[in-house]
Amino acid sequence: MSENFTPDSSLQQQMETFEETCRTADLKLTHQRLEIYRELAKATDHPSAEMLHKRLQKTMPTLSLDTVYRTLTTFEQHHLVKKVQTVDSQARFEAQMVQHHHLICDSCKEIMDFHWNSFDSTPLPADIRQWGTIRNKNVTIHGTCQKCQALKKVKKRT
Amino acid sequence: MSENFTPDSSLQQQMETFEETCRTADLKLTHQRLEIYRELAKATDHPSAEMLHKRLQKTMPTLSLDTVYRTLTTFEQHHLVKKVQTVDSQARFEAQMVQHHHLICDSCKEIMDFHWNSFDSTPLPADIRQWGTIRNKNVTIHGTCQKCQALKKVKKRT
DNA sequence: GCTCACAGTAAGAATTATTCTTATTTGCAT
DNA sequence: ATGCAAATAAGAATAATTCTTACTGTGAGC
Ligand SMILES: [Mn+2]
Ligand SMILES: [Mn+2]
Ligand SMILES: [Zn+2]
Ligand SMILES: [Zn+2]
User: Fold this and answer.
1) Which CATH number is associated with domain B1-97?
2) What is the percentage of chain A residues whose pLDDT exceeds 70?
């Protein structure tokens, strides 16, 4: 590990990969695309388009919500980001493209990543294979996070 | 197995359980509720509210789409149906409440059930336990179903 | 079986999330 | 530096879902 290591070094790396992918895909490197990608890449909470827009407006007051949506869709088509499947109406996004799974708090809607290598390497039940071509398999865990549990206890006491 | 066994016997059973649950929950047994539940219970494709409405309109021409939505929401609150999490804008529903998992075709959006008991009884990675209270864990498999694969091949030949 | 209170419904308006249209701006190849 | 296709901003439009309101029907009590 180098002496120049900073918590941002992986983000820097990710930005470079992003720029490279854009150039290869003939996507122009606009300020909007760079900032939207950076904001999503540094987020760990799987923000919605609206959340991203709100965060970015502080530094880019003229950024339109439509651009956020359009840009995320473009990124998705180029496998730079993923739409996360939820039961809620607003779509949630992430720039984390390596295989992982999700913990979802049904109370605050927080989405957290986790890894589960032993699951990833477990073969599927045999009878599923004939269904078609399988692209990926993912686990979603629903529950209530610590924070929300604590809040509930406080409320009960009232 | 009785001589009176018919393919519908389990649906009959499910309808009785449904009626019982409604009575216990002080939900009036309206024609709309009965038919919406029956239609969803007999479906295996996880229909959207709109799909259910379309199917029911044949026999109930005055049924409003709003009633379908409202009724499904009521059922969901009483754990009679579940909203299925997808990446698409239209919500999909099911009356199948026993633990199971989903195969989703990214091409035709078909959602299929499957069971995986060995997964269900596998403990979660230890480091997840501290996140909060876990309610359930489910697997979603994405891919392309046989039908869609066949269609693609035909198209390629053209 | 009849009546009545009130939960539930239909219809259309409203809201929310997302996408489209169009005039203007910008990245980048030349 | 110039030109032009691609991208953006703003607001209109669309799609999915929910709300409002006047009317209807379920089922408890007689
Ligand atoms: Mn994730
Ligand atoms: Mn299912
Ligand atoms: Zn929470
Ligand atoms: Zn398919």
Assistant:
1) 1.10.10.10
2) 92
